[in-house]
């Protein structure tokens, strides 16, 4: 897999430093509250577990699988709810954990859906924010890195469902996209 990478944007240690910082910000924001932390599958799996593992506060976990890229580098424009959470979030403080906010469509869908179920508050933690990709308005409360306008892979992020298990985040060589 390493051979397919043109450049590394964020190393393993850059990512771990960001996770530690975000964990502290989240703990200080919630104080004694017990939020429901929702990991957005599949991309946020590693990020969510790395942030919460060292964050010493009470929280509940759940997962929502939503999809709109279907392995490609372009959003289909339609966010599909593949698997829902099982927690009743009415009156609860919700923290959404995302790997990336790009066009903003996925985040808007999530916030609209969870608001409609009566969450008391909704906050968003994303490892990567790509403001240059935005098509709809969507903002995050806790952000790891602002990423340039490139399609990135690794640490949960995929191209054609692959590269999620790279321990760092990088950009693929142009011929990888061209070959598919
Ligand atoms: O801001 P947007 O343009 O909506 O893009 C962000 C979303 O796109 C990716 O999900 P994808 O649909 O690829 O599903 P995946 O997490 O299973 O890869 C990513 O994990 C985010 O959830
Ligand atoms: O840059 C990206 N990489 C992988 N998945 C994504 N989903 C939205 N943007 C991206
Ligand atoms: Mg994807």
TrEMBL record:
Keywords: Glycosyltransferase, Transferase. Its EC number is 2.4.2.8. The keyword Transferase applies. It is an enzyme of class 2 (transferase). This is Hypoxanthine phosphoribosyltransferase. The lineage of its organism: Bacteria, Bacillati, Bacillota, Bacilli, Lactobacillales. The gene is hpt.
């Amino acid at each position: 897999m390493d051979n397919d990478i043109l450049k590394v944007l964020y190393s393993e240690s850059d990512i771990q430093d960001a996770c530690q910082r975000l964990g502290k910000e989240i703990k200080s924001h919630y104080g004694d509250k017990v939020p429901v932390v929702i990991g957005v599958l599949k991309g946020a799996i590693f990020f969510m577990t790395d942030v919460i593992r060292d964050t010493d506060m009470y929280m509940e976990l759940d997962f929502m699988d939503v999809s709109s890229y279907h392995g490609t580098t372009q959003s289909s424009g339609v966010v599909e709810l593949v698997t829902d959470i099982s927690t009743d979030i009415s009156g609860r403080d919700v923290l959404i954990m995302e790997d990336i906010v790009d066009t903003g469509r996925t985040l808007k869908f999530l916030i609209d859906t969870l608001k409609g179920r009566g969450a008391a508050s909704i906050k968003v933690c994303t490892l990567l924010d790509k403001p240059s990709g935005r098509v709809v308005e969507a903002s995050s409360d806790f952000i790891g890195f602002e990423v340039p306008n490139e399609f990135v892979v690794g640490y949960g992020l995929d191209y054609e469902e692959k590269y999620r298990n790279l321990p760092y985040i990088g950009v693929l060589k142009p011929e990888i996209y061209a070959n598919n």
